[in-house]
Amino acid sequence: MVTTTWKKFACWRTTLEDEGESCSNRGGGDVNGRVDGLWWYKDTGQHVHGEFSMAVIQANSILEDCSQLESGPMSSVESGPQGTFVGIYDGHAGPEASRFIGNRLFENIKTIHDAEFTSDNQEMSADVIKSAYLATEEEFISMVRNQWEIKPHIASVGSCCLVGVICSGLLYIANAGDSRVVLGRLDKAEKEVKAVQLSTEHNASLESVREELQSLHPDDPQIVVLKHKVWRVKGIIQVSRSIGDAYLKKSEFNRAPILPKFRLPEPFEKPILLAEPSILVQKLYPEDQFLIFASDGLWEHLTNQEAVDFVNNTPRNGIARKLVEAALQEAAKKREMRYSDLKKIDRGVRRHFHDDITVIILFLDCRLISRSSFRGPIISIKGGSDANT
Fold first, then answer.
1. Mean pLDDT confidence for 172-187
2. Closest Cα to residue 245, out of 175, 160, 174, 178?
3. What would the mean pLDDT of 69-80 be, rounded to a whole number?
């Protein structure tokens, strides 16, 4: 069945497929992915539970997104479970926090998991992932404190952090910020693949987030401010949870020499932003076809169902790159320009048309999902910031 949203993309699907054919091995043939101008991509690969595809397009002068895919052992214990880890780290005010998370978060998950590993308890858990987030946050704040005198701007750098872990037939989703993961699930009755959003977002544009902030800071009438028609925490930042942003976590960093736009008029006692993620744990079923992990730059231009329809109706090779291109087509259309003209715009200026966009798509093979003892390929890929430094 061809849905309404899919028809929207059908007119230019041929162009993308032709590009994909001529470049079919560009990302897939390189173990660590490829860099091509403002693009980084790994068109296809195999993780423990199926196939995957990754892509990043840069818009900022310095790419602030970072991402990673780890597939294989989820701990350093030889008899530990196998799994797949996905991380999307959408940085802001600089790339330092997203790169730091890319280097430390998965290592912290393995370390904390090892500490709790016993012959009776070999599973991944929400507590392990939460502890890893908080450990990574603590490490980053410690780095800010150590570098404060020589590199004070690092106190204003932060990153959203979206993580997915598949282990022993279970899916764990953790999120701090406004990146998003959407599941494509087959509805057998209607013979359609439907979009199911799995992540909880923390953006002040959402009424529920504003209410949460107001309940956490009942004595601060300025905790969320509508500024230039956009809701912002303290009139500064849209996300309410992140790793980093020390200037809104510790009052000691909210002072000169950081830029005036980051400074608050009054000191604060408790953190304004939180690093603790919202976590979902659920079983995976044969109807679950694929997962789309992406920074908010993708979701600014495509709805959940549009993204799912596109992935479901497009050949897999290079699908992440093609999905990003679909979003760029929409970005160009909003500005009443041709996509071919948008492609000519260089980094920096391009941020006026779209954000950095990172996408990782995991296809799910139900035969492999529940086999925690399956020794599949060991994969470790960093996309985005680390690929370009």
1. 98
2. 160
3. 83
- 242: three-class secondary structure by DSSP: coil
Structure tokens at 56: 């990043």
pLDDT at 155 over 60: yes
Q: Model confidence at 113, in pLDDT bands (50, 70, 90)?
A: confident
Whether residue 32 contacts residue 381, with contact meaning beta carbons closer than 8 Å, is answered with: yes
* Cβ neighbours of residue 157 closer than 8 Å, sequence gap 6 or more: 91, 92, 93, 94, 95, 96, 97, 244, 245
The answer for residues whose C-beta is within 8 angstroms of residue 218's C-beta and 6 or more apart is: none
User: What is the pairing mode between strands 39-47 and 357-363?
Assistant: unpaired
Cβ neighbours of residue 98 closer than 8 Å, sequence gap 6 or more: 64, 65, 66, 89, 90, 91, 159, 384, 385
Give 1 or 335, the one with higher predicted confidence: 335
Strand partners, 235: none
pLDDT at 381 > cutoff 70: yes
Task: List all residues 6 or more positions away from 241 whose beta carbon is below 8 Å from its beta carbon.
Answer: 160, 175, 176, 177, 202, 273, 274, 275, 276, 277, 278
Structural contact between residues 205 and 254, judged by C-beta atoms closer than 8 angstroms? no
Quick one: pLDDT band at residue 373, thresholds 50, 70, 90? low
CA distance 138 to 134: 6
> Strand, helix or coil at 380?
strand
DSSP string across 75-93:
SSSTTSPEEEEEEEEEEES
Cβ-contact 87, 52 below 8 angstroms = no
Tell me the three state secondary structure of residue 295. coil
Per-residue exposure over 261-271, b if at least 16 CB sit within 10 Å of its own CB, e if not: ebebeeeeeeb
- For the chain, the first-to-last Cα distance in angstroms comes to 44
Q: Confidence class of residue 374 from pLDDT cuts 50, 70 and 90?
A: low
3-state secondary structure of 293: strand
What is the pLDDT averaged over residues 244-263?
Answer: 96
C-alpha–C-alpha distance, residues 210 and 119, integer Å: 44
Q: For residue 282, what is the DSSP state?
A: E
Contact 139, 98 (CB under 8 A): no
- The tokens for 165 are 């872990």
- Look at residue 8 in the predicted model and tell me its pLDDT: 53
